[in-house]
Structures are given as C-alpha cells and as structure tokens.
Amino acid sequence: MTFKLNKNHQASTRSIIAQDHSLFVEPETTQLFVKKGWVFPCLLGIGFAVSTEAALTGTVGFRQLRLYLEMILFAGCFWVLFNVVFLLLDKAQYNQSVTSDHSDKHRKITHFSHLEDIRSVCYDALRILCCWLPYIILLAPGVIQWDTGDQLAQYFGLSVFGMKKGVIWDHHPFFDTYLYGWFASLGQTIFHSYIIGLFIYSVVQIIILSIALSWMLAYLGTKGTPRALLKGITAFFCFFPVIPICAMSIGKDFTNAVFTVIWGILFYKLIDSNLTLLKKPKFLVAFVLISLLNALSKKLGLYVIALCLLLVLIGHFRIQLKGAILAIIVCLTLTVNAILPLCVYPVLHIIPADAQATIAVPTQMMARAAHDHPTDISKNERYVVDNYLGNTWDVMAENYNPYIADPATGFMLKAKTSFSSFAKVWFSVGLRHPLSYLRGLTCLESGWLTFEGPSNIEEFPHPPYNHFSVKMRPSTSSSVNKDTFGQITTVSKPSPENELVDRLYTTLMGIPVLNVLFYTALWTTVFPCFILYYLWRKRNRAKRTNVIFYALPTLISALSLFACSTTLSTPSSGSSAMRYMYHLVLLLPAAIGLLSTICSKTTGNEDISAQC
User: Fold this and answer.
1) What whole-number distance in Å separates Cα of residue 244 and Cα of residue 259?
2) Segment 400-443, tens digit of pLDDT
3) Could you give the CA distance from residue 47 to residue 86 in angstroms, rounded to a whole number?
4) Do 306 and 332 touch, CB atoms closer than 8 A?
5) 293, 232, 282: which is closest to 257 by C-alpha?
6) To the nearest 5 percent, what fractions of the chain are helix, strand and coil?
7) Largest CB tally within 10 Å, which of 28, 204, 363, 495?
8) Alpha-carbon distance 258 to 265, whole Å?
C-alpha cells in the first residue's frame, strides 16, 4: 500500500531526515572521530582485539604487530555495523511517521495488542506463554542449578560449604534460599515431593516473566515504538530459546532477572513523569518493594539500583523529588546492609558472607603479578597480603587461573590486617608490574569482549591454543551435588526431553546469521556500546539530559558484569558465566526500541524527549 504526501509534508520530512543525517556529510575530518561517534566502535574494536588474544592464549603480546592489525579490523567492522543499525532505526522511525495516520489498520496485522491495561497485558502474556509452552513441558520439573541445590540443602539443615548444620551462608542470598526452600517444602507437604514444589516455583517464575515482558511491550507500544521494531522485539521475546530455557531455571540470577525487568519498567515510568510518580503512594510502595526484592535476590542488584538512582540526582528534576530518591537509596542500603544483618540474620541463623567477592577482580590482578613475578615482594608486603586475603602470595601464584578468580580468592578473607594496608600493597605491586595487572584484568574479563575463547577454562592455556565460540549455553538439565541436596531427594539425570531441548538449542545456535544472536559479547558489550553510540549521534535531538536516564538500567547492568569472578563459558562449564548476563537479553531489545523512539520522534519543532 502506498501513501501520497502533500508537498509541505514531504518538504518537512526531508528537512527532518537531512537534519538527522547531517553528520554524514560534514567535511571536517577533525570532527569525524568525535561528532560521528567513531570513538565508540574504535574503543570496542581495541577491547575485542586485546580480549580475544587474552582469552585464547592467557596473555597479551603488546609488541606484536598482529594485535594492532586486529584492532583496526575490529574497529572497522564495528563502525560499519553501528552505522547500518543506526540507519535502519532511523528508517523505521521515518516509516512510522509517514504512516502514522493509518496505525489503526496496521494494528490488525498482529495479534498482540501492545496496550497498557491489565486485560491486554494478561492476554499478550498468555500468547507469549503459548510460544514457550514446549519448553515448559520438555524442561519440567525445571532446571536446578548446582548452587541452588546447595542452598536447598542448607535450608533443610544439612552441613554445606564446610559449615555446621542448621545455618545458612549468605554467600548465596538468603532470600533466594528461603524462596526456593519454601516452594520445595510446599511440594513435600502437598505432593510428598520436593521436586514438584520446585516445578511449581519454575512455573510461577515463567508466568511472572511473561507478564513482565508483556508489560514492557505494552509500554513500548504506548511510547510509539515503530511497528516494525516492536514486532521484531515481540518475536524475539516469543521465540528466542534462551529466554524460556533460563526462565525454567532455578537460580539467583534467573530470579533476579524477573525483578530487574519489572524494576526497569517502573524506572522508565518514573523518568517519564519527571519523578512526580513518587508522590503517588501506590507507585512509591511498589517501586520500593521491587527495588528491595531486586537487591535481596542478588548481591549486585542493590549496587545497580543505587547507582542508577544516584545518577538521577544530576538530572533536571525538582529538588524535593531528588530528596525522595536519596531517601530511597539510603533506606535500601540500610535495610540490606545493616537492619537485616543485625536484626534478622541472628534469628534465622544466617552467616554473613565475606567481602572477598567485592575485591575478586583486584585480587585476580594481584594473583597474576604473583604468578608472573613470584619473588618480587618484600617481607612487609607479603605479611600484609598473607594475613588479609584467603590465600597467601605463594598459593595465589600456584593456583592462578587466568579465567576464574575463585582459585585466587579462596572464597574468604582472613582480614587480620586492614584493608587500607592491603590497598597500599596492591597499588605498590601494580606500579611495579602494570602489564601483569593489565593481563590479569583482560584475561578475567575477556569473555564479555570476544567471540572466540579457550575450549577449557580450568587451567592455564598451552599451545596449540584450541578455541571455541563464546556463546550463551544455558543448562537444559539439573545439576545437583549428591552430597548436599542429593541426600534429601533424587534428582533425575538428563531425560530424553532435556536432551531434545539441548539438541534443538545446539541446532539453532549453529544456523548462519541466526547464530549471531547467541554470542555472549553481542549482549554484554556490543549492544551497550551501540546504545552509547546512538545516544551520541542523537545528542542534538535529545535537548534535555533526561534522555540518558532511560539507558541507565541497561548500561549500569552491563557495567556490573565486570565485577564477576568469571566471564567465559565453555561446553564443559555450562552456564557458569552466561547466567550473569541473562537479564541483559531481556533489557537490551526493549532499551534500543525505547531510546530509538525517544531520540527520533518529533512533535512539531520539539523533540519528544523534551516532554519527558
């Protein structure tokens, strides 16, 4: 179907498109790198070249010409990719503007209503569930993660992690432990089966996620996301296999992902209203409650939320509402880090986790220096390190694994010396061996910035360097320690149905073009970097700084991944690293749809972002 436009409309449309694409015709070469946003694909290309070598060889040869040629190649490829996607998003928005008067006719093309009311959201959620139904059936009674089995064993009073019976270690959030344990107890009470109770939990989790994604799609529809883009996001949520497989998995990262999606929608709405929704008691209670659940279900959840809200304080909002945001941050932090440990932990026999996880990356960097230069440390420095970290300097050097921080951290801290003393030693060692620190950091974080990695992450790589595609590989069958939760109930081995899902997933992951969506780095760094690139290219349209806040949940979540103790997944390691970034698979498509709409749509001579 074609549409005829009057001359005035055509002229105004051409002027808008010319304004949007004026950056493509600027002759000044000195402005290309900055104004066209070349800095983002170039930095990404450099990161990919360094990380790929670090992942494959366990080191980085900065004197090799090949490394710099790869930097140029990666940077060029990402620049072309970013420009193509940028133009496609602009074209989708342009098509939306010239066909806006005929939206009612086009709405009939899809069965999804994308309307933000309870009935429509529930119906759309049911449609999503219908697409996920084969996975629900084939993966029943759910995929129990290894750590989840240990949590359940502690919930039922067994000794786990070398601790005495009847205590729960908050290394894995106690909220998740009690949540999974309650459903397992429910199944045992009603059906005389812990496994049935966990299956009920997995079904509840996948239903809530379908409603959350349906709500997200409805929100995008309300904001005016181009129909073609909205249909693509809808199809992605319905048919991308990673989403339902992980939704049927029982583990802290998958539970937290559900709360993250809901919190993201509430955060978007909060920015839409210029924070005035905080004046409504119902919204305030819902926002604080979801924020608390997000923080309790995963340790990093609190810090992601707190950083997003802290950055909101620099926006153009009323000072009283900024005060309310600050009060929420303080209340959440005190509740999670002070009130619960002091008042709840002793009653429930919960043992607080050590702070070693918060310094896992710095510890790994020092472990690399110990591995490369085992004798270059003074007696005083050795004393501080040996009495602060869980492992001594010599043990770190011996146990060092370039891809996993746990062997270096030892899962604990002695803390017999002060943190300030350790920090001074850490900086001192780093000044002597900066390349060792850089190699330790790049090897550990390489999984987020490479398409190819080692076939084995359990040991230091040696020639020949066998490589494997770094793709998302979610677990399709339960994995439980027979000495912990395995003592309470029998967890069946991979069933034929589980193996069918695994074969189907492997087949989809190998289809050309489609297989691109399965690469981990696409979600952890390429898409987030493109969001920065897109916002930079559209900065003239985003006249108010509030636009950047719509990207905060996604960008801060992606940034938080670099605090993880491992980033690579191989066929033998399963979903060890992939589970950390699952929530980005849910947030990124919606974030790109939302930002493309806010930064492109115009009403009269004003940018729509000026109304937010």
Assistant:
1) 16
2) 999 999 888 887 888 888 899 999 999 999 999 999 999 999 99
3) 21
4) yes
5) 293
6) 70, 5, 25
7) 363
8) 11
